[in-house]
Specification:
Layout: H1 21-28, H2 34-52, H3 56-86, E1 105-111, H4 118-126, E2 133-139, H5 146-156, E3 160-164, H6 174-191, E4 201-205, E5 209-211, H7 215-225, E6 230-234, E7 236-238, H8 242-247, H9 249-257, E8 277-281, H10 282-288, H11 290-294, H12 300-310, E9 315-319, E10 324-326, H13 332-347, H14 352-364, H15 368-382, H16 387-404, E11 414-415, H17 424-444, E12 449-450, E13 453-454
Parallel strand pairs: 1-2, 1-4, 2-3, 6-9, 7-10, 7-11
Antiparallel strand pairs: 4-8, 5-10, 6-8, 12-13
Length: about 475
């Protein structure tokens, strides 16, 4: 058990690469576009106007919008299915080639107030039948039973290392600080180990991820087969509360849409890193400066993938239906707090982006039911059939059904109730509410927080 690491984060002698991590982080952010803002709010008000003044011209414009939206979504659905089928799949049904010489994998898992998920996740990890495995847990100043759970696991599995309460650098994000502190000790031990190899890997994971036997062997086999320096894996998403089911699966699908396996190493492709499972070569991690280089920047998982590409390393992406599973959030409050945190990270201090997101959701997710109602009610009030109003309602039906189809195929990567796709207007309301909440945070300059800790990363500030 380790309570005090030997070196402070600001006194380490690790040599950093020449990557400008701040510039790299800035390039990952979406661009605030006034044109997009005006376009989507214009669409929303045009749809509202068509409901109140349903002329033939207005309803024709509505149908043009619905058709173009449907066509665009159909393309994205096909991209999702094509990419998913083209990605490496780590599965319990897959057969592994016999391999006697597995490289060493050192797993590092930070934990801050993780008592709800830690015990199951940690036991699944420490009992993996990987033949060359070193496991480190970092208790990052938890105020719940995390310390006791980790101490119990270490007593039961003496090969497990536990670091408690690493020193905190106020200018760093907590997770990066905890992971770097663990790496300092791992690296010191490695320097005295004559068995170290260029094939050694680091695996960074989260304290809520449940591992199944075979996942490490398959991941390492894919990484070595494809000569990768970095491999991230998408766990199977478990969504239990309605808030989780309505908001998370489509976001998971969005990651796959940008993950064409043959194009991941194109310099123009967006880097993909999922913090739940990031396998990186030891030498590559040292090459870009590790979490010391990432300490002031967020999101550290995406930035790690970007940094590997920046120094010429090869990155990969895999998914699994059964060998990794995770429930990221627990209920509405947890979903809201973490969604706002991630939106703040990517959007920065620009209210253009949440305002644009609001208009997009109002136009695509929430307008279907008002359009249906407007067409039907006005015919009922008039006491007769009207072709234009009927077409307005039909446009709303098409928009509603097409929004539900956004869940098509997601059951392969996420768990959700069959009714969830048809309750998508509720998700639209929640997303609009989250966007308003984010705008409130930005306007009032409220600092980001994570589990009781204010986060002071450089990229929490606005950069022009």
């Amino acid at each position: 058990m380790i309570d005090e690491p030997p070196r402070q984060p600001d006194t380490v002698d690790a040599e950093l690469s020449s990557i400008d991590m701040g510039a790299l982080a800035q390039r990952l952010r979406p661009t605030a576009s006034s044109m997009a803002l005006v376009f989507w709010w214009g669409i929303f008000f045009a749809l509202i106007a068509a409901c109140f003044y349903p002329s033939t011209l207005a309803v024709s414009a509505v149908w043009l919008f619905v058709f173009l939206l449907f066509a665009n979504r159909e393309v994205r659905r096909r991209i999702f299915l094509r990419n998913l089928d083209g990605l490496p799949c780590l599965s319990g049904d897959a057969a592994l080639d016999a391999q006697q010489d597995w490289p060493k994998v050192t797993v590092v898992v930070p934990a801050r107030d993780e008592e709800a998920t830690l015990e199951e996740a940690a036991h699944s990890l420490v009992t993996l039948p990987y033949p060359n495995l070193d496991i480190w847990f970092v208790n990052d100043h938890s105020t719940d039973r995390t310390r006791q759970i980790l101490d119990t696991i270490q007593r039961e599995f003496p090969q497990v290392h536990v670091m408690h309460d690493p020193p905190v650098n106020a200018e760093w994000f907590g997770k990066s600080n905890a992971l770097w502190q663990a790496f300092l000790l791992i690296d010191r031990e490695r320097e005295t180990n004559a068995a170290r190899s260029d094939r050694d890997w680091l695996l960074f994971g989260d304290a809520d991820v449940v591992f199944a036997p075979g996942v490490l062997q398959q991941a390492v086999a894919v990484a070595e087969r494809d000569q990768l320096d970095f491999l991230t894996c998408m766990p199977h998403l478990i969504a239990k509360s309605w808030a989780e089911q309505l908001l998370l699966p489509t976001g998971w699908r969005g990651i796959v849409q940008g993950a064409h396996y043959d194009r991941l190493n194109d310099p123009k492709s967006f880097p993909i890193g999922i913090g739940a499972f990031m396998l990186v070569k030891y030498s590559t991690y040292q090459g870009f400066g590790g979490h010391k280089a990432l300490g002031q920047w967020h999101p550290e998982d995406t930035l790690m993938a970007a940094a590997v590409k920046q120094i010429g390393g090869r990155v990969g992406f895999a998914w699994t239906p059964d060998l990794l599973r995770v429930r990221f959030y627990n209920g509405y409050r947890d979903v809201k707090n973490n969604t706002l945190r991630k939106m703040r990270i990517f959007f920065g201090e620009h209210i253009h982006l949440p305002l644009t997101m609001m208009a997009l959701r109002l136009s695509t997710t929430l307008m279907a039911l008002p359009m249906i109602a407007a067409g039907i009610l006005q015919q009922l009030v008039a006491g007769g059939f009207d072709l234009t109003l009927t077409f307005l309602s039909l446009a709303g039906v098409v928009l509603y059904v097409d929004e539900a189809r956004e869940y098509k195929g997601i059951e392969r990567i996420a768990e959700f109730h069959p009714l969830a796709p048809w309750l998508h207007p509720v998700s639209g309301v929640l997303r609009v509410w989250f966007a308003l909440s984010l705008i409130g945070q930005i306007v009032t300059n409220k600092p980001m927080e994570w589990r009781g800790r204010k986060e002071f990363g450089t990229n929490t500030d606005a950069h022009e």
